[in-house]
Amino acid sequence: xxxxxxxxxxTSVATIEAIxxxxxKVAAEVRAxxxxxxxxxxxxxxxxxxxxxxxxxxxxxxxxxxxxVVSSGEQVTSGLLAMALQKRGINARSWQGWQIPIxxxxxxxxxxxxxxxxxxxxxxxxxxxxAVVAGFQGISPEGRITTLGRGGSDxxxxxxxxxxxADRCDIYTDVKGVYxxxxxxxxxxxxxxxxxxxxxxxxxxxxxxxxxxxxxEMAMKENVCVQVLSSFADAVGSDLxxxxxxxxxxxxxxxxxxxxxxxxxxxxxxxxxxxxxxGVAAKIFGPLAxxxxxxxxxxxxxxxxxxxxxxxxxxxxxxxxxxISIFNKSIKNxxxxxxxxxxxxxxxxxxxxxxxxxxxxxxxQQMFQTLADKGINIHVISTSEIKVSVLIGEExxxxxxxxxxxxxxxxDAA
Amino acid sequence: xxxxxxxxxxTSVATIEAIxxxxxKVAAEVRAxxxxxxxxxxxxxxxxxxxxxxxxxxxxxxxxxxxxVVSSGEQVTSGLLAMALQKRGINARSWQGWQIPIxxxxxxxxxxxxxxxxxxxxxxxxxxxxAVVAGFQGISPEGRITTLGRGGSDxxxxxxxxxxxADRCDIYTDVKGVYxxxxxxxxxxxxxxxxxxxxxxxxxxxxxxxxxxxxxEMAMKENVCVQVLSSFADAVGSDLxxxxxxxxxxxxxxxxxxxxxxxxxxxxxxxxxxxxxxGVAAKIFGPLAxxxxxxxxxxxxxxxxxxxxxxxxxxxxxxxxxxISIFNKSIKNxxxxxxxxxxxxxxxxxxxxxxxxxxxxxxxQQMFQTLADKGINIHVISTSEIKVSVLIGEExxxxxxxxxxxxxxxxDAA
Lengths: 414, 414
Hints:
Two copies of one chain form a homodimer.
Chain A: E1 3-8, H1 16-31, E2 35-40, H2 46-57, H3 63-70, H4 72-87, E3 92-95, E4 102-104, E5 113-116, H5 119-126, E6 130-134, E7 137-139, E8 145-147, H6 152-164, E9 168-173, E10 194-196, H7 197-205, H8 213-222, E11 226-230, E12 243-246, E13 259-263, E14 266-275, H9 280-290, E15 298-301, E16 308-316, H10 320-333, E17 340-344, E18 347-353, H11 363-373, E19 378-384, E20 387-393, H12 397-407
Parallel strand pairs in A: 1-2, 1-9, 2-6, 3-6, 9-11, 10-12
Antiparallel strand pairs in A: 4-5, 7-8, 11-12, 13-18, 14-16, 14-17, 15-16, 18-20, 19-20
Helix pairs in contact in A: 1-4, 6-8, 7-8, 9-10, 11-12
């Protein structure tokens, strides 16, 4: 009899009807003799509404208050699902992050889980009760509510699975698994039976919304067996119909490219007329790092005028205003008065990911050629061992995805 | 410089614009040199939505899970108001019930505050920061979230005012104060400048929605100076434009009748063919008391058949299903098989309240005559020292209120 952690995302708990459906799935596992802990997201749309309230009050709001506000959605779902399970005769209770507690660091709005106290939990499993855990949230050393960033409930689930030594962590979502590309944009996208942690990590970090990046990191580190599957299919998790995350050596077939992703969450910033002196990059990026703004793609141009240089980089679109305000301060404090800033949010980051890339040359070149053939201009390029990303105009995103999907032979033959 | 507790109800924080308005009022008090703690309700409509989710899953849901669900609305508002105050340059932070902590008993969904730990709070006031407290919620001895019943944020505010020794507790609401009757039903209703605790207590317990009954009890017991005023008027609380709750000896003018209220929250239950033996009432009401169902008006009829009796009583409409289910069990367990039950929710309880009633005869008679003149049948009567309540058909409620308001000379001359 297995010990399962089951996680249900926002669309899986969007309505009371959907929550009842989730309760049926959990009940089926319990009746099959398994022990289950369930991690839930907020009802679809709720977190967005709460975030927009915060933005409306002030784009530069206190992240501690933001966390108090946005964590409430998961609290609601955890209580409702516990009720729905009780209605089915299943012993269940809700757990908030601070009740367990799920201890995090102090990085409000993007906190990292540091420890989970599982003592009470293990008692629950012994007592055959289902723990319904509010995902996305934890508690700081100061006793303030923290949240784990968008998609953080995945990380809650994987961390919990690691902490209690679960046999599997089933991530129920509104898609049937991990696809080669977003089927909403590329109808010929295929569902993958397996994907290795490294590929999933790259895909998650460049726009595949199916799992939060940190949850994949944690699954890889803690060797948690994760399955991504649909909460709307009839079969329960035990039937293994989704996509399994495995380690590279468990992979049955290594594809050249496993997936193509698109991220519209980035904004591009270009700084012109920067003094080309040692330490200038540190002056720019230091304050951003301090403010926990994740700078992603960075390109420094060799400028015509040898005393000046240009710098282009991307930051999360949500951090754009904050980045501009931080940079305006840096200009004053750091003697960068002559510098000019341009910024744009009309960009998309297209990435190809595949572990097979390691042993094959020409993969990136095929990407550049395919985009060139469609007349798509590339603003910035960045690469890793198993990934190539390009920044292009947002209006070309769908076109680029479809062209690349075909070029790499990923189209579903069916 | 005063220490104020300011409480804002659901309509006062219904939108972000309304929350900004509240922040302006708090900021005005702080800039005038006062210290402030603010207690907030959920945004109007939110709690109703959450309650209906719970009802949809199961009318017989676990009250502990209900509390986890419905307490989330206040969490949101507390965070948003803290942000809005910070935007105005005011040092503020949100506090959840479990963070303070506000310790309650275990009566989930209608918990009573047992203690408030004000140590951290008093440090806050010393540090000149505004504490924004999520109303309505507390924490049980087991560490579960509790709620204080509908309108419980009033009680949170008064309890906090008592605990920190506030100079005044201002209850901001969507009306300008306490009225002789609901102005929505009786346009000639007058705003009272003062009302004594005892009258307010009776009025609150029989349907005047302006304050939660328990908050008035607590204000009376702890001698907290409470003001009810509008959050939509321009003046700030210091201008004393609302209704003040005072003790009887502070009352400047004692009216015969201070107010007339209407409650539509009751359901009537009649039990027929009960055996007329000692202990039968205990058999009926014992299980209801154990389940924390508040039985209000009770009438036992002398039956024609001397071995049988009839019993009529009212319970909160929200508890009707539970009452029926409890009673059906009692019938089996307690040898009451021959008993028949009737129930109705189409009733309204009309009450006249006034401290002057103590020294005047004929007040109740005038009520009965006024209703009789309008052809309104009275189902049940109950009285206290300063109150007379009658249960009538719900369809006659508005007619009864207007007739009584005129009969007791309360109509506004203006």
